[in-house]
Specification:
By secondary structure, the protein is of the alpha/beta class. It contains six helices and seven strands, in the order βαβαβαβαβαββα. The protein has a seven-stranded mixed beta sheet, sandwiched between helices. Strand 1, helix 1 and strand 2 form a beta-alpha-beta unit. It starts with 6 loop residues before the first strand and ends in a 9-residue tail after the last helix. Bound molecules: 5-O-phosphono-beta-D-ribofuranosylamine.
Length: 203
């Protein structure tokens, strides 16, 4: 049985980092296997996500410009990149360098309420104004578009009568935390399966 090397995960953040925290916690309790977060890169130096990373003993960097983000990612040796509340659009160079290795968590049922301008509370306000009876979260691959990559996992949540955008956001965020970890595990398993199996027999 080949002992699998843990895959290196870099996490890009911009804000509070509750999705990052979900990944940290689920790796610690074994719900996410064969992966370890090796670096957290924030687009903002005031992101609380950086404190969460530091508390977990994870290396951090602040990089707004995409060429610096690429350099930090290459230096980290990341196999997979997870966008966790990341508020910038990745450069085509990064997408090319990490094709099919970048995932994002979006707080709606893509292809609804996504793309330019649909982020954070704006998503939930639009869902309520749209009279939707359900919303949810989506984990998807990141390509050159905004929220346009192949969907990995989705989960629905109800929109309740009288919901405020903040109440809906809180309900969806719980689902984000759950499916982001599951989605990352699916990608870890896929990338691990693609790796050439080292032949321990030395034949
Ligand atoms: C949340 O609105 C979430 O829906 C989106 O980014 C925002 C912040 O997430 N993915 P986090 O708490 O910084 O992970």
């Amino acid at each position: 049985m080949n002992r699998k090397e843990k895959l290196k995960i870099a996490v890009l953040v911009s804000g509070g980092g509750t999705n990052l925290q979900a990944l940290i916690d689920k790796m610690a309790d074994g719900q996410i296997r064969d992966g370890e977060i090796v670096k957290v890169i924030s687009s903002r130096e005031d992101a609380f996500a950086l404190e969460r990373a530091a508390k977990a003993g994870i290396a951090t960097a602040v990089a707004a410009e995409q060429d610096k983000v690429l350099a930090e990612l290459q230096e980290s040796g990341a196999d997979i990149i997870a966008l966790a509340g990341y508020m910038k659009v990745l450069s085509p160079e990064i997408i090319r360098a990490f094709r099919n290795r970048i995932i994002n968590i979006h707080p709606s049922l893509i292809p609804k309420y996504c793309g330019k301008g649909y982020y954070g509370i704006h998503v939930h306000r639009a869902v309520i104004e749209g009279g939707e009876k359900e919303s949810g979260a989506t984990v998807h691959y990141v390509d050159e578009g905004v929220d346009t990559g192949e969907i990995i996992l989705q989960e629905k949540v109800p929109v309740l009568e009288g919901d405020t955008p903040e109440e809906l956001a809180a309900r969806v965020l719980k689902t984000e935390h759950k499916i982001f970890a599951k989605g990352l595990q699916k990608v870890i398993d896929r990338v691990q399966a693609e790796k050439p199996q080292e032949d321990e027999g030395g034949r």
